[in-house]
Amino acid sequence: MKILTAPRMERCIGCHSCSLACARLVHKMLSWDMAGIRIASSGGLSTGFEARTCLACLPAPCAAACPTGAYAQRKGGGVIVRKNLCIRCGECAKACPVDAVFLAPDGEPFVCIHCGRCVSYCPHDCLELADVGTEGTEESHARESAS
Amino acid sequence: MTNEQFKVLVVDLPAGRGAITLLEGRDSLAGGSGLTAMLFDKYGLPDRPWDDPEQPLIFAIGPLTGYFPLMSKTVCAFKSPYHDQYAESHAGGRSALSLRFAGFDALVIRGKALAPSCLSVGSRHLELKDVHFLWGMDLLRTGKMLRRMYKGAGHRSILRIGPAGENGSAMACINVDTYRHFGRLGCGAAMGAKNLKGIVILGDGSSSLPEGKAYPKLFAEVYRKMTDTDMMEKYHNFGTPINMAVLNGISALPIRNLQKTSDPGIEGITGETFARDTLLRNAACAGCPVGCVHLGFVRERFMQENRYLYRQVSYDHEPIFAAGAMLHVTNAFSVLTLLDTAEREGLDIMSAGVALAWATEALEKGIVTPRETIVPLKFGDETAYREGIHHLGAASNDFYRLLAQGTMKAAEHYGGADFACVLGQEMAGYATGEVFFVSQALGLRHSHLDAGGYSYDQKNKEPDVDGAVRFMVQDEQARVLLTSMVSCLFARGVYGDQVLSDCLRSLGYLNLADGLGDVSRNVRKLRWRTRLRTGFDPRTVSIPKRFLEVETWRGRIDSAYLNALKDAYAAAILALGQEDA
Lengths: 147, 581
What we know:
The complex is a heterodimer of chains A (147) and B (581).
Chain A: E1 2-5, H1 17-25, E2 29-30, E3 37-41, E4 49-53, H2 61-65, E5 71-73, E6 79-81, H3 91-95, E7 102-103, E8 109-110, E9 128-131, H4 141-144
Antiparallel strand pairs in A: 1-9, 3-4, 5-6, 7-8
Chain B: E1 6-12, E2 17-23, H1 26-29, H2 32-43, E3 57-60, E4 74-79, E5 86-91, H3 95-102, E6 106-110, E7 117-122, E8 125-130, H4 139-149, E9 156-160, H5 163-166, E10 174-176, E11 180-182, H6 187-192, E12 196-202, E13 207-208, H7 214-228, H8 233-236, H9 242-249, H10 271-277, E14 279-283, E15 293-303, E16 307-315, H11 317-325, H12 332-345, H13 349-364, H14 370-373, H15 382-394, H16 398-403, H17 407-414, E17 422-423, E18 425-426, H18 434-442, H19 453-459, H20 465-482, H21 497-507, H22 510-514, H23 516-533, H24 545-548, E19 551-552, E20 555-556, H25 559-576
Parallel strand pairs in B: 1-6, 7-12
Antiparallel strand pairs in B: 1-2, 3-4, 3-6, 4-5, 7-8, 9-10, 9-12, 10-11, 14-15, 15-16, 17-18, 19-20
Helix pairs in contact in B: 2-23, 7-21, 11-12, 11-13, 12-15, 18-19, 18-25, 20-23, 20-25
């Protein structure tokens, strides 16, 4: 199972190519909000950037909070989203401890689905689609560095 | 998805309210430079002064903004305090994508706020806030305060002015997101005259994209060209300061108020030196993977015990030329310190550096005295220039107040016009020859970006008036098409007519895609007509004697060629902008 990680954000130049790619390719939108990865300056441009994206929790609190089953636990971490089951209650966003779920003005949630389509659009190789194994294996380190 | 009409937010500052206006013209003017000229035609007052409260301050993006890589610039248009005529200045940062996601093709600001204010707009938001407590505050601190006062970190653009913009300086810039600028021709004063300290544009909206695979496929192709080829290497490696050593090597770098065009000391401020000794990291405009913004650092020991502070300062060729070569400051850290000083004042460093270079020579020659300059300005003296920049921004006395209106204005009063390095406004960092001098002196923006005259000079040795004028006219036309989309001009190697047409077609702008030739001619004509209507007469432009004394790798400037070129280009401009019969 693979998850999206952002292990090299110190390299980020704030071009937003990743979030624009997610919005364009996954959600068919032109937006820097309606995306599973969103870039923000961490306290002004002079201090660099951070990626707001799903850390692939296992178990995922957003899935546990979803009252309709629109968010279901994804094997290896994160969630599988079925938007046709979503009632726009926003509980997923409230449950996320790292503000990784964006709610559109109409309440539609946007979260990373760990597809990795953003990765190739990063010009500085900040992002990585990493394999995750079971706890205690070498691959589990990928999760630790997912930030 | 496509906006066949221009959606323009027109803000009435005294009322603190705005109105959405839908305007025709997409197929004939595209957006950006074309749209700003059209909006000035509609809202501008050609016969009234620049600081008349009713003069519009305009920001516009284009049809491709945000949809394709490097379509990341905003065009600002205004009546300039520098020459009281129509002017454009361009900037990136997050301004362009913020306007796109706020949902507007343009923002037009009219009237004067009743108190020092900050305007914030977004897709579901318009507010004018009293910020009298920020008036007088330096530009960088203002940015920090505005960041704290408004939401939307990372997905917004914050435009602000410093003391220079409040003081009506014709050299005042508008800072965009800390490291970018609407730099030239005094747009900061145009904003200050409206009692506007800041503008926050919140990019909190979204729009749908075309169905099917054609658009994402084309995006991927354009993106690959921008990132995979060597074309952009110049911009993301050493950045534009790579020009410093190149121009110095061919005796084409303006040094020491253009007394020289080459000097061994320039080694201390080349792009290579900045990268090796000062480069901290890079940054990008939103929507651009190239990341040409180079951030250097300076540290300052502020206590005897080892206590330091540090600053991050963006650098480029033009600021290094102005604060370094022109002032003969040849230490990279000293140059960064001067850039930081100018930033705090909200000054365009290109104009400030060139103006202080003139003031230094005027002081040397006894044309002005230390009573005027307050500090003993001296080539190479960082400390003196730090103080000089502050006095220029603060308009500390009559001399600096006049100098801040333009070097030639001061020279007309005190003398020393022969060595004022003014080509329409303070010169850019090229002493390549006759074509560049004429191109900047007569160009609509008085910018090295109006047409590639500096490049023509380097490729064509023999005088050729007709060929050079043809080049400037054609190159300007190609560039205004890009600045109507609105592309970064660094992408001009990728965005040829065919690629632009394909991009527009993929979004559904079919008429625009088929009519690019007409569009670029329309925009060029409208811009020139607008400039001429506000009083510009290219036949009256004079090029100071100092430019005729320049020696480049080709030898001394050919004054007969320069004058013939100037007359011919002036005639061409008048023809381009003539009123319809």
